[in-house]
Amino acid sequence: MNRNDNRITLQRIARRAMISRGLAPDFPTDLLTELEGIVKPSTYKSGMTKDLRRLLWCSVDNVDSQDLDQLSYAEQLPDNKVKLLIAIADVGALVTQKSRIDNHASQNTTSVYTVAQTFSMLPEKLSTDLTSLSPDKDRYAVVVEMIIDDDGAVQQADIYLAMVFNHAKLEYESLGNWLEGNGSIPLDISKVKELAENIQLQDRIAQKMRALRYEHGALDFETIEARPVFDGDSLSTMNVEQKNRAKNLIEEFMIAANSATARYLADKKFPSLRRVVRTPKRWSRIVELASEHGFSLPEKAESKSLSAYLKFIKQNEPLHFVDMSISVLKLLGAGEYVVEIPGSDSEGHFGLAVKDYTHSTAPNRRYPDLVTQRLIKSAIEGHSAPYSVEQLEEIAHHCTLKEDDARKVERQVEKSANAMLLESRIGEVFEAIVSGASPKGTWIRIFYPHVEGKLVNGFRGMEVGNKLKVRLIQIDVEAGFIDFERIENM
Questions:
Q1: Whether pLDDT at 1 is above 60
Q2: Cα 19 from chain centroid?
Q3: Does the pTM exceed 0.85?
C-alpha cells in the first residue's frame, strides 16, 4: 500500500463502515436546502434571558475542536462556597423539532469521530459556527448554575437562558500542563485580565468535586484515546492521549451539570432521558480478576469496593492499569438511554456513582442532549413537555443502538489505522492481556504499542484479564483485522 494514500484509504473505509452500520455519511439535498435559510445565530431577547456576556467565560476542548458545546465560569462566595456556571450551546434555537436537519440528526444520533474523518451530526455551518460557543462571539445558551460547598457537594442548582461570550478558547494539553505546573500559562489566558485566577478557582473546586465522587464510589479508569498523526496523507503514528487536570475539570463540571439537569426535570415533573450504567452482570468475573491480583471483592456488586480495587492496581501495577481499566470496563457493560417517568426510582450510573444522570452538555454532537435541551427549555418557559413518554422511549432505544453503531465504526477505522502501522511487524512477539472474551471470539491488547487484535490460535480457556505472549501472524487493513496466536501464558 502506498503510504501517501493512507488518509484516503482510511476515509474510504470510514464511509463504508458508516453505511454498513446504517449511518448516513452525507447530508441529503433537502437538508442542505433548509440549511440555506439559516443565516445567523439566534439573538438576544431582552427580558427573556439574562445577559451574562461580561462574565469571564472560557471553553476547554481538543486543540482542533470547533463544535464548542460548553463554557464555564466560577465565582467565589462567602463561607468557602463557589458559584459554578456551565453554559451549554442553545442548539435547539436553530434546529427545530421535526425539521429536516433534526430528522437527520435523529437518525445518526451522534457525531462519529474516526481517525480519518469526522461525520458531524449537524452541518458544520451550525455545529462549528452558528450553534457553537465560538470565541469572541455573542451566543444564546442554556446555563446551569450551581452552588458548590467547600467539600465539593452541589448544594443547590438552577437552570435558565442567557446570552454569553467566550473570552478564550483553551485546549486540554496546554491548560493541563499549566495547571499541573509543567508548562507556562497559555497565551489565550494571559490575554484576558483575571481569567487565570478564575480558571485556578475552577480547578480547585473541580478537584474537590472529584474527590467527593470517589468517596462515594466513583470508578477511576484510564483508557486509551489515540489520535492520528499524519505526515501529509501518510499516517505516521497514533498518539495516545493521557488524562490531565484540564480533562478532569471538564469531566467533573459536565457530570455535575448533567446531574443537575436530571434533577431539574424531575422537580418540574417532566419525563427525561437518563443515561444509566446498570449493576454489572459479569461481576463474578470482576471478583475473580481482583482475586488473581490479591484483592478481595464482595460477592454482591458494589462500586466503592471496585473503586478501591482500581486504586490498588494503579498503585501496585501502574504499567498495567490501562489494560485493567479496559478489562473492567468491558465487564461492566455499556451505558444506555432509558426514560425516567416522574416519581419513578432512577437506576443511576454505576461507574460515576451518581443517582440522577442525563446527557445534556453536548447538543451539537449528541441527539439525546438536544432532546433534553428541548425538555429543559419547555420546563423553563412553563410549557408542557415537547415529547410523550412513548416518543422518548423510542428515542432512547434508537439512540442506544446508534451510539453502539457509531462506536463500532470508530473502532473499526482505528483498527484499520493500527493495521497500517503494524504491517511491517508480522512475526514479532508481544506481551498482551485478554481484553474481551465471548462466543464471537477472544480479543487481546498488546502493551507496546497499545493495539487490540483477535487471538485466532490458542484462545481456549482465556478470560478477560489473563496475560500472555502472542505473535502477530496476519494483517488485513481493509477489514481492520489484526490476528495473533498465543505463544505462552505469563
A1: no
A2: 23
A3: yes
